[in-house]
Amino acid sequence: MEIVIAGGHGKIALLTERLLADAGHTVRALIRNSAHEADVEATGATPVVADLEELDSEQLATLLTGAAAVVYAAGAGPGSGPARKWTMDYGGAVKLIEACTRAGVDRYVMVSGRGADADAPDDGSFGTYLKAKGQADAELQASKLRYTIIRPVGLTDDPASDAVSTDPDSGVETIPRADVAAAIVAVLGEPRTAGRTVVLRSGSETVAAAIESLLQ
User: Fold this and answer.
1) pLDDT single digits (tens) 39-94
2) What is the dihedral of CA 122, 78, 172, 187, to 10 degrees?
3) Which of 90, 108, 129, 147 is catalytic?
4) What residues does each domain of the chain span?
5) Residues 6 or more apart from 82 whose CB is under 8 A from it?
């Protein structure tokens, strides 16, 4: 499968790229900074310098040619102001939805966040982040794309545990980024996850088993 990952130099993205490349997939990683090309290449993915804030959806669509799926793993990041939360956590994600429609790519995996809510208060801080993510999720859900939205709880840099839960209401409030990456790969390989929004946290099931349990 040929997959395009937006936000290709993020921590989750780099882990996902390596897993996908190791599994034999072709991966293109959209990055803003050319200085990050070597980091992407080290995962087995191909870097493509593309600034999501500068490109319009038509320009972005040209970068999706030949792709079977996209992953939106971009975001404004910690410490960013409210303006970038709207241009990246919301705007970039929506722009990629439009680009997929133009390019005929119908599979879209969104890395969102637990608590994402289109009705959250636009308070210029964490509420703005949740609102931007929530509105992006809502537009993806309303699109005609075959989407899966992954909403991880608090992220850590711990090693992969392959022990997760999709229970939306209770459990551990953290998860290693490496387990989120494994879940992204799992849902890309499971067409039945289309149309699903999944809260992901550390738990007691393997990633494969947790995804299967979700589908029962």
Assistant:
1) 999 999 999 999 999 999 999 999 999 999 999 999 988 778 999 999 999 999 99
2) 90
3) 129
4) 2-215
5) 122, 124, 125, 128
Phi, psi (rounded to 5 degrees) for 76: -70, -35
What is the C-alpha separation between 99 and 64, in angstroms, rounded?
Answer: 8
pLDDT computed for residue 206 by the predictor = 98
**Yes or no: domain 2-215 corresponds to CATH 3.40.50.720:** yes
How many CA atoms lie within 13 Å of 182's alpha carbon, on the beta-carbon side? 22
Round to whole Å and give the CA distance between 161 and 147. Answer: 26
pLDDT at 183: 98
Q: Is 90 a catalytic residue?
A: no
Residues of the chain with pLDDT under 70: none
